Amino acid sequence: MKKQMNYWIVLLLAVFMAGCTETEQAATPETEVQQEATVETVAPEEAETEAPEADTDEETVSSETEQPPAEEPEEETAAEPAEEQFEGYELVEVDGGDLSGQREANTVVSVGYGEREYWAFTNEHGQLERVIADEIILQDDSSEDVLDSGRYYSDEAKVPGVESDILDEGHVIADSLGGVSNAYNITPQESTLNRHGDQAYMEDVIRDAGGATDFEAIITYPDTETQVPSSYQYSYTVRGNEVVDTFDNVNPDEVNASLGLTDSEPAEVEASAPETSSPETSGDVSSVDANGNGQVTIQEAKDAGFTMPIMSDHWLYPHMRDNDNDGMVGE
């Protein structure tokens, strides 16, 4: 009997232990499921919290990366005018005082003294065809090396043609306007035109205005062989006014004579009013200044009946240009 009781006790214990084991096994998956559910619930929240930080960093890096490309177009834009301006020409350096009269074909050369940006262009025949400057800056003898003659250099380039007795070594942009003396700024120019005619007048206007902007000289030739121009056209802006001067490379006095502008009529005026050639304290410059620019040329004075030269004590003298500063104009 006792053995039978022990048998049932052992059997019950075995059944009890088996039931506990199943309960633990069943409990374990539920616990793991709950833990996994907890992890899955927390993970999305952490991802959402960290995501903005990642986006912010990406935006900062992206912003910093995009800044350099924004500057590059500005540099390209700034360089474009020069590239377009010199397209088809070879940029060559020539000393401002180079006396050689030879020019290279299809070249562009700086003809501004110092830091001035004046540019000269030659065509396929080596002829000087164009000179430009965004701004004409007058000569400054207080800060620049200027000779007593008022020039930067003691001589000018010997361009073929200047050996003529009637042709000057004419600057396209004068020393007084900041131009150099090499072959890319010199053309053989009729002497009277250069010293007293339209060329001198143009230089006077720019000097009196203190400079000019948008300057351009167009030079033409009768053929492709010569270096002696047939005509010039200057365009520039002074005091807000656009000016265009066109003239032939000839003696203006001879042209005026051929047009009958120096015939007997002015002489009759001189005979009836001899006092006009004598010193006076004042006068009406508007009656002499034909184009009303405040500057009287020799030809304008002659057309008005004045005899040359005009001396320094004459009322008209301050309104004219004395190129050699000898106290007389038109000698």
Provide an overview of this structure.
The chain is α+β, with helices and mostly antiparallel strands and 331 residues long. It has 2 domains: 90-254, Extracellular Endonuclease, Chain A (3-Layer(aba) Sandwich), CATH 3.40.570.10; 260-329, no CATH class. Helices cover 37% and strands 18% of the residues. It is built from 6 helices and 11 strands. It has helices at residues 2-86, 191-195, 198-208, 252-258, 264-272, 298-303; strands spanning 90-91, 107-110, 118-122, 128-136, 167-171, 186-190, 212-220, 231-238, 241-248, 310-311, 328-329. The chain has a 7-stranded mixed sheet, with helices on one face. A two-stranded antiparallel ribbon has the order 5-6. Strands 10-11 form a two-stranded antiparallel ribbon. Strand 2 (107-110) and strand 3 (118-122) form a beta hairpin. The longest helix is centred in the N-terminal third of the chain and has 85 residues, at 2-86. It is elongated, with a radius of gyration of 45 Å. 25% of the residues are buried. Residues 26-52, 72-81 and 264-279 have low confidence and may be disordered.
- Sheet-strand content, in percent, reads 15-25%
- Class computed from helices, strands and strand pairing: alpha+beta
Overall 3D shape: elongated
- Based on CA atoms alone, the radius of gyration comes out at 45 Å
Under the CATH scheme, which architecture of the largest domain would be assigned?
3-Layer(aba) Sandwich
**Strand count, sense and closure of the main sheet?**
7 strands, mixed
Q: Count up the helices.
A: 6
CATH H-level name of the largest domain... which superfamily?
Extracellular Endonuclease, subunit A
Q: What is the total number of structural domains?
A: 2
- What is the top-level CATH class of the largest domain? Alpha Beta
